[in-house]
Amino acid sequence: MALAEQELNEIAQVLEQPDAGSTAFGELRRRFPKLVLTRCDASDVTEAPFRSYAAFDLHLLDASEHCAGVTDDPAQATGLILAKRG
C-alpha cells in the first residue's frame, strides 16, 4: 500500500495534535486499518525520520520484501513506525 499525499497530510494532522503522545497510535490505527503500525522509543531507530513532530519521529516502513526496513519513499511504504521522542 503506497501512501498518497492526502494520507500523509492526514497522518501529519494526527501527529501535530497537542495530545498526540497519548492518542496518536490509536487514532492512526482507526483511520488506517490496513497499514502496519509499530511504536517504539526514538532511540531504538537509527535511520533519519521521514518527518518529525513534537511527540514522535515518523518513519515509513517497507515490509513488502522478505525483511522489513525503513524507507523514505511513500510509494513503497506499507506501514508506519511511530518513534516516541523524550
State the main characteristics.
alpha+beta, five-stranded mixed β-sheet, 86 residues
Q: Could you report the average pLDDT, rounded to the nearest whole number?
A: 93
Per DSSP E runs of 2 or more residues, the count of β-strands stands at: 5
- Please mark out the parts with pLDDT under 50 across 5 or more consecutive residues, or reply none: none
Q: How many DSSP helices? A: 2
Radius of gyration over alpha carbons? 12 Å
Question: What's the quick description here?
Answer:
The protein is built from two helices and five strands; from the N terminus they run ααβββββ. The chain has 86 residues and is an alpha+beta fold.
Description:
Helix content is about 25%, strand content about 30%. It is of the alpha+beta class and about 90 residues long. Strand 3 and strand 4 form a beta hairpin.
Write the layout of secondary structure elements.
Elements: H1 5-15, H2 20-31, E1 36-41, E2 51-52, E3 56-62, E4 69-71, E5 79-84
Parallel strand pairs: 1-5
Antiparallel strand pairs: 2-3, 3-4, 3-5
